[in-house]
Design the sequence.
């Protein structure tokens, strides 16, 4: 009898948990769905009220954006180039730096690791003036290099890689590779990186999305409209020429959001696996 009551209570609890999760899912997905639907509707339809079904004006909305001189295709390629380059450099060099901190024992190791954590806590806005002056002296203002090269020394990426490698690194494998005559770079590329691949993929997803959505740095460093990233182009939709074209505005926002949605849909399991594996220590 007690077992039946326990099973009944368990089923009731699960039912309410599923109801709660369904509500959270609806709250999360509904705004995104409405954004995508409104991107296919005309301004008149949007003014008439909310609709959950797509319409047929997506191409017309895109033509409105193109007629105003807003080249979303070029902005998309600019953002894609910056995001991919930033992701590759950040993931590789952060894990390389983390490998040196985790595997080697040297004087000041704890201080150096703590300094990395301190850099993570410092807001970017506090150093943007000095960073802009530094890029200006190097002649990299209005150049994608000013957005890509700093990712080599990303404090968050190094911190994430450190935490992950501390949980998965196997020092015996490193020692075995040295005994077999392998160099440090060979050990890193052929032993450490395959082991750390779930964490590297997770970091890559975070870095790509952060770079894709980044508006502040390009806004400060990029001045040529031909080099504008997609978030910068979308920001121009706030101008007077677009204020009456709601469908075109929603389309511009949707084009910015769709790649992020696709990335999460394709690689969400890597995010979960990478974080879960990195949180367990032997």
Sequence:
């Amino acid at each position: 009898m007690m077992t039946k009551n326990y099973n009944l209570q368990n089923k009731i609890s699960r039912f309410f948990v599923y109801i709660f999760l369904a509500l959270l899912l609806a709250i999360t997905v509904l705004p995104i769905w409405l954004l995508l639907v409104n991107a296919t509707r005309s301004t008149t339809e949007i003014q008439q009220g909310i609709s959950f079904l797509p319409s047929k004006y997506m191409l017309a909305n895109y033509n409105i954006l193109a007629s105003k001189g807003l080249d979303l295709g070029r902005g998309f390629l600019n953002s894609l180039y910056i995001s991919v380059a930033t992701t590759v450099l950040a993931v590789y060099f952060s894990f390389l730096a983390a490998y040196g901190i985790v595997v080697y024992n040297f004087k000041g190791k704890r201080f150096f690791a703590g300094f990395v954590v301190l850099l993570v806590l410092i807001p970017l806005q506090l150093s943007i003036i000095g960073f802009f002056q530094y890029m200006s002296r190097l002649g990299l203002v209005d150049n994608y290099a000013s957005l890509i090269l700093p990712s080599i020394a990303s404090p968050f990426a190094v911190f994430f890689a450190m935490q992950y490698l501390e949980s998965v690194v196997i020092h015996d494998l490193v020692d075995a590779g040295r005994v077999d005559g392998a160099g440090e770079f060979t050990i890193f590329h052929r032993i450490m990186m395959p082991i750390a691949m779930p964490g590297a993929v997770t970091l890559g997803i975070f870095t790509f999305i952060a770079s894709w959505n980044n508006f502040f740095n390009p806004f400060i460093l990029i001045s040529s409209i031909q080099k504008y990233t997609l978030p910068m182009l979308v920001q121009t939709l706030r101008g007077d020429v677009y204020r009456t074209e709601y469908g075109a505005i929603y389309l511009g926002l949707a084009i910015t959001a769709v790649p992020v949605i696709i990335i999460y849909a394709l690689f969400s399991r890597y995010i979960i696996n990478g974080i879960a594996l990195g949180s367990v220590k032997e």
Remarks:
- Residues 2-38 form the longest helix (37 residues).
- The CA atoms of residues 154 and 209 lie 15 Å apart.
- The chain has a mean pLDDT of 83.
